[in-house]
Fold each of these.
Amino acid sequence: MSGKFAVGVDYYPEQWPEERWATDAALMRDAGFNVVRLAEFAWVKLEPALGEFDFDWLDRAIETLSAHGLEVILGTPTATMPAWVMAGDSSIYRMSSDGRAATFGHRRGYCPHHAGYRRHAERIVRAMASQYANHPAVIGWQIDNEFGDRSYSAVAQTAFQAWLERKYGSLEAMNEAWGAVFWSQTYTAWSEIPVPLDTGGPHNPGLALDFARFSSDGYVSFQREQLEIVRAACPNHFVTHNLMGFGYDQIDYFDLASDLDFVTWDNYPRMWWNVYAGDDAARAALGHATMRGLKRQNFWVMEQQAGAGGWQMVVPHPRPGELRLWAYQAIAHGADGIVFFRFRTARHGTEQYWHGLLEHDGTVGRRYLEAKQFGLELQRIGAQIAGSVAKSSVVLLHDYDSRFALQIQPNNPELQYATQFAHWYSALHRRNVGADISSSTDDLSAYSLVIAPLLHVVTPEAAANLEHFVQGGGTLVLTARSGVKDGSNAVVNEALPGLLRDLAGVRVTEYDSLIGSSNGLRFDPNTVLDAADVTVNIWCDLLEPSGADVLARYTGGFYAGAAAITRNQVGRGSVIYVGAIGDAALPETLLEWLLAAQTAAKLETNQLEITERWQGETRLRFYLNHSADPQSVALGGQATSLLTGDAVSGILKLEGYGVEILTD
Ligand code: GLA
């Protein structure tokens, strides 16, 4: 990433008459944009027939855009294959878990494990990379578009069998790891191993977790094949992919990101599929933090919501000011590039109602003007922001193996990994406590508080990492359903929480999955935690402390009086084991107490989102008003507005959906 701040738009010249391109490019330039993403769905225009390439139109589009000062990111177009590719080989189609094969007419219809499809992809990517390797306007590449969705096809099955053979080396080792003797599932040939189609009912958890990992690896390796071609041909260009934030749960994004120069993602704060907990602002912040954590570096938003979304239905329209606010929120959480999706609203195709910056008829309205205000602001202040970094003392551990394992066996109808994770994140967000998101094996030494919601699958490496953190003086929060599984998705052969038991200083003697019932938690007023009772309705671990103090006990049922939350002092640090799971109330209560106990944390409980980025020794403070009403906040001292250059002190006032950035 250069020191320049990227602002731009996703543009589809192939969808509009060529006579219009110069008008569009001029509008982009006038809006202060400096980058444009092109071509990620344009395969059939680039290769109308097998091996016959046509780059002339794209050359001309790039020439027009570059003449208006725009630099270009090219998408490899492998998410939407031409009909002629599929007509040649129907085995390419991805199959969903219900056994139905995709059909032509949508996108991402391919099985990522299909060698023939990968050869088609290789051909178009090689041709594009060689065409644009030395083009002065091209700066980088996006591989494919939003990789995702597991494939259960016959091709995937064969690839899964080969993946297992590579992983285990012998059928004996695999059968042993899965406990395959259960229900006579012992395999005597690799070719006997099924994929976990729903049609067969729930599968062996060991097989199912390996299949989730294999499916993730399939996209990682498909991306790597394309990336190696692009890197070899275009050593001066960056290579990235547009991921889907925290909400997407089919790929281990730590793995997918490891091959990229930097992460980009697609940020749609107001969408109907954002079903996990939290309001729009907290969900978007969680997405940004997740993406920043993948490589522990700044990221771009490759698709930033530009209007109301919609395929068959139309989502409520962003209010005046929200597009700019959301773009600044991304920056406030570590974005060094904002690319709006999309420029002009499509007249044809599935996304006719996915509103871009321009209207269907190409006219300019308030969305364009708002993006223009943002673009021109960034033209002035972008260089002072680009490359500055967020610093947090709190981190949440995001573990895809645990998330996959809980997809396979949720344990309770109301237990969702994403929702529980979001409860903890939202409680921090509401208090303006910046939080990072890392994997359970990342270095945690920079943090004072580590929260590990539902760390269900625990490896010896993760357990050792957590112990090292706590011994060094950190506070670790663990929840129920942690340490339940080993890396093979077998239940551990010891009392829960398994490998974390000594660290937590507690043993789970029994547990109660609450279905249609609830229980209460009473905090012990003799401990530091003196809070009102909390009701939980999902899960209760009954705890037997072995060295830990009891912070809360159950109030009802046959286990009334049993320990529910404990704290264990270990070395210079401590471990809080939260044995009960319910809604947001419990994380709220515990964080109120824990953050007050953390000297590093700042408590600001108004509705304004406040974050920081540091440019060397210079602090940039972002103030984001996510409500329609004006808000104000008291400032500590004298500051300067990056947006206006004015000195600010006393009370900072922000209009509805207003934004301010201050330097000390
Ligand atoms: C995703 C895709 C885009 C577009 C938008 C809106 O983020 O990457 O191509 O489809 O969703 O649906």
Note: The pocket of alpha-D-galactopyranose is lined by residues 145-146, 242, 266, 303, 341, 351, 354 (CB under 6 Å).
Amino acid sequence: MKPAHFQSMKYPMPEKKITNFQTIVIQFENAAERLKLEPYLRKILRIPFREVSVQLPVVMDDGRIEVFTGYRVQHNGARGPYKGGLRYHPDVDLDEVRGLAILMTWKTALMNLPFGGGKGGIQCDPHKMSPRELEQLTRKFTARIGLVLGPYRDILAPDLNTDEQVMAWIFDEYSSRHGYTPSIVTGKPVSLGGSIGRKEATGRGIVYIIQEVLKDLEIDIKTTTAVIQGFGNVGSHTAQFLYEEGVKILAVSGREGGIYNPSGLNIPDLIRHVQNRRSVATYPYGDPITNKELLKLECDLLIPAAVGGVITKEDNVLDLKARIVVEAANCPTTPIADKILQEREIPVIPDILANAGGVVVSYFEWVQNLQQFRWDLDHINRELQAHLIKAYREVRSLAERERVTLRTAAHMIAIGRVAEAERIRGH
Ligand code: NAD
């Protein structure tokens, strides 16, 4: 029999297609209602504390000046400094960044880290920019939002299309004005004070959570199959660790499409293939598959690890043939699709739990930077696993007690913690 927290519950049902921000607000309202949160706290937690929007003129390689727009949203800092990634993408806008900042507040609270939540983004297409242009853009952004950053104020990290190199530029630009400050960013190169294990932490954490969920459902991980959308940092590390556990990875994809092999993909070989700047879709050992088709493949674990809003009523949720959905990406499921998944009794491991491994090791990196001390990989992985399993157990037992989904339980725990900090700090 399925545990109670995997059974169907009712959600508010929006009538039209909604944005990631609206999805996140609906998730908040749903949990706030169950917590019977005071009206003033609902208002405080529903909207960000501070939103900064900056112009970013950059001299491009051909001599033109292009003006980009960048955002940093600081949602809530009651439990500690704002913490969250920076993404570069053509679809970035204030609404999206706002939603993701809110999600970060819940994620850090669920993991019980001494952080609040923030998010940043620059509307640009990094695939059409040279390394020099990206460096100029990153440095200009850091200079222009510098006033609201700080190791005890707001700490950045990598996200979609940003990596260790981008973090190194931010660290350098910030330090040139404020003195040596490695703790201003996490996800830095290890040679600049980054933490061992940070790069692969989100993928590793996803696999730790999957192992616990499968144990609860009495499913042997070695008998399972997985389909992964996205083969960047999160997708490729998740694939690698699942492969090492004996999971058969049937398909993976990137922006340009994917590759499907019913006998299972050789993930280390595929990783070598993409490391040579080739796309997943050109891997020769399998059949090409579109991102749309991939999401509908029959599998045990469906792992969206790319962009938000990909599991929707319009596109696919009625045709999904997965046994469990694991939200490696932020906000991949719209509320209406979420409700349909509940009705179809397909459990969803929510983003703020599934992909929190990155921010947990970011916390370890920040602590190591502040202490000027290095932890080894075993210590980091042990602590990471302990944090994630503790959070999963808390979520699971609240879900069973309240007979709600894992998502609602995760939000109730997180929002409850932030609300308590707000009440005690006073106004
Ligand atoms: P990334 O830039 O390293 O990789 C993104 C991958 O998604 C690439 O393979 C890209 O080709 C693919 N992709 C992009 N647009 C797509 C589309 N429209 N359809 C299908 N595939 C597409 O990014 P990442 O760091 O791996 O982040 C992936 C997701 O995980 C994001 O939603 C991010 O917010 C979330 N996340 C990342 C971290 C982290 O530590 N990096 C932590 C928590 C959550």
Note: The chain is about 45% helix and 20% strand.
